[in-house]
C-alpha cells in the first residue's frame, strides 16, 4: 500500500512546478539597497555607480509579493502532489532548506524569467516534527535569455508527531509529552551552562576591550581577542522583542507560548521564555526578572518572569 502511494508521489518528479514566470520588477537599485539594509550587508559591490545584486537575492526577484503572480504561479501538477499528500494525512508543511547556485551576476535593468520543476520526492522519513515526505523543487532563473542561477527549495509534508494525542485529555498529553530538547553544550559555551547549574547567568566579557557578549562565542566580535572573563547578570531585563509560537507544533512544548528576546540590564540580549504572564500579554518593553526554572529532573533553564502587575 505504502509502495503504491510512493510510486504515485514519484510520478510527479520532473513535472513542472511553475512555468513561464516573469519577475515583477526588473532588477533594480532600490530593492538591492533595501535588501542590503535589512541584511546589514555593506559590501561595496552592491552600491555605487555600477552595482550588482547580492547573489542571495536570487529568489527575491521571482517572488510575487502580496498580490501574487498573474502567471508563473504554482502549477496544477504541484497542487495535485500537495493534495495527494494532504489526502493521505500529511497535512502539515514546513520549509526545511534551500540551496542556490549562481551562474551570472544580476545587474539593474536585468529582466528576470523563471521556471520551476518538481525535482524529487523523498522516501517516507520520520523526523522530530513527524513522519512525511520531503519535496524538492528546482527553480531555474534567467536574466533575459541567459541562465542566472538555480534555487532549490525543500519542504517536508508530514503528519505532526503529536497529532494522535488530540483525542486524549490535556493531562494525558502533558504526561506523555516528550522532554524538551537538551542544550548543545560544547567547549565554547560550557561555562555558561556551569553558571546556570549554580543559578548564575554569566555573560562573557572580552579581556582586551571589555565588550560584553552573549550568546557565548570563542572570540570577541569587536576586537577579535580570544581572552575573556565573565560578569554575572544582575537579572533585570526588558522584553526587547518576542514571538508567540503557534506552529509548527513541537511535541515537547505546549502551544502557544511566548519566546522573548530579552535585553539584560547589562546591555546584551538573550532568547528565553517569558513566564508568569499569558502568552498574549507579553509586550515589548515589559520589565522582566531572571529566574531558574526546573524543566525536568535533568534540566534547569534561565527564564524571565514578567514583573508584578505586567499582566494587566
Ligand atoms: Zn574585544
Summarize the structure in words.
The chain folds into two domains: 2-172, Thiol Ester Dehydrase, Chain A (Roll), CATH 3.10.129.10; 190-306, no CATH class. Mean pLDDT is 90; it is low at 165-171. 15% of the residues lie in helices and 36% in strands. It has helices at residues 2-10, 29-39, 76-87, 170-176, 190-197, and strands at 16-22, 92-102, 112-121, 125-126, 130-143, 146-160, 202-206, 212-213, 228-232, 236-245, 257-264, 269-275, 287-294, 300-306. The longest helix has 12 residues, at 76-87. It has five helices and 14 strands. Strands 1, 2, 3, 4, 5 and 6 form a six-stranded antiparallel β-sheet that branches. The chain has a five-stranded mixed barrel with strand order 10-11-12-14-13. Strands 8-7-9 form a three-stranded antiparallel β-sheet, covered by helices on one side. With 312 residues, the chain is α+β, with helices and mostly antiparallel strands. Residues 206, 208-209, 211, 220, 222-223, 225 line the site of zinc ion.
Percentage of residues in helical conformation: 10-25%
Characterize the overall form: globular
Number of domains: 2
What is the tally of beta strands? Answer: 14
Name the ligand types: zinc ion
Name the CATH superfamily assignment of the largest domain: Hotdog Thioesterase
List unreliable stretches of 5+ residues.
165-171
CATH architecture of the largest domain: Roll
Q: Roughly what is the average pLDDT, rounded to an integer?
A: 90
Largest sheet: 6 strands, antiparallel
Amino acid at each position: 500500500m505504502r509502495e503504491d502511494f510512493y510510486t504515485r508521489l514519484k510520478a510527479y518528479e520532473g513535472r513542472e512546478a511553475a512555468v513561464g514566470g516573469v519577475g515583477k520588477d526588473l532588477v533594480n537599485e532600490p530593492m538591492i539597497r533595501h535588501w542590503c539594509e535589512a541584511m546589514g550587508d555593506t559590501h561595496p559591490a552592491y552600491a555605487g555607480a555600477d552595482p550588482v545584486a547580492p547573489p542571495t537575492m536570487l529568489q527575491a526577484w521571482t517572488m510575487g509579493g502580496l498580490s501574487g503572480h498573474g502567471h508563473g504561479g504554482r502549477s496544477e501538477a504541484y497542487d495535485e502532489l500537495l493534495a495527494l499528500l494532504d489526502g493521505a494525512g500529511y497535512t502539515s508543511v514546513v520549509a526545511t532548506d534551500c540551496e542556490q547556485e549562481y551562474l551570472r551576476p544580476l545587474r539593474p535593468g536585468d529582466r528576470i524569467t523563471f521556471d520551476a520543476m518538481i525535482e524529487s520526492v523523498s522516501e517516507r522519513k520520520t523526523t522530530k516534527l513527524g513522519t512525511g515526505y520531503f519535496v524538492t523543487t528546482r527553480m531555474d532563473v534567467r536574466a533575459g535569455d541567459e541562465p542566472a542561477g538555480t534555487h532549490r527549495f525543500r519542504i517536508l509534508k508530514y503528519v505532526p508527531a503529536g497529532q494522535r494525542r488530540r483525542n486524549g485529555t490535556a493531562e494525558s498529553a502533558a504526561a506523555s509529552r516528550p522532554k524538551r530538547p537538551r542544550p548543545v553544550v560544547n567547549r565554547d559555551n560550557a561555562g555558561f551552562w556551569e553558571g546556570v547549574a549554580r543559578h548564575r547567568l554569566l555573560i562573557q566579557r572580552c579581556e582586551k576591550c571589555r565588550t560584553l557578549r552573549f550568546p557565548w562565542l570563542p572570540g570577541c566580535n569587536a576586537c577579535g581577542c580570544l581572552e575573556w572573563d565573565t560578569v554575572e547578570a544582575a537579572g533585570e531585563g526588558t522584553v526587547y522583542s518576542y514571538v508567540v509560537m503557534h506552529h509548527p507544533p513541537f511535541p515537547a512544548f505546549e502551544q502557544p507560548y511566548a519566546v522573548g528576546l530579552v535585553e539584560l540590564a547589562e546591555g546584551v540580549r538573550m532568547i528565553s521564555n517569558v513566564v508568569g504572564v499569558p502568552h498574549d500579554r507579553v509586550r515589548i518593553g515589559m520589565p522582566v526578572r531572571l529566574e531558574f526554572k526546573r524543566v525536568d529532573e535533568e534540566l534547569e533553564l534561565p527564564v524571565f518572569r514578567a514583573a508584578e502587575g505586567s499582566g494587566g
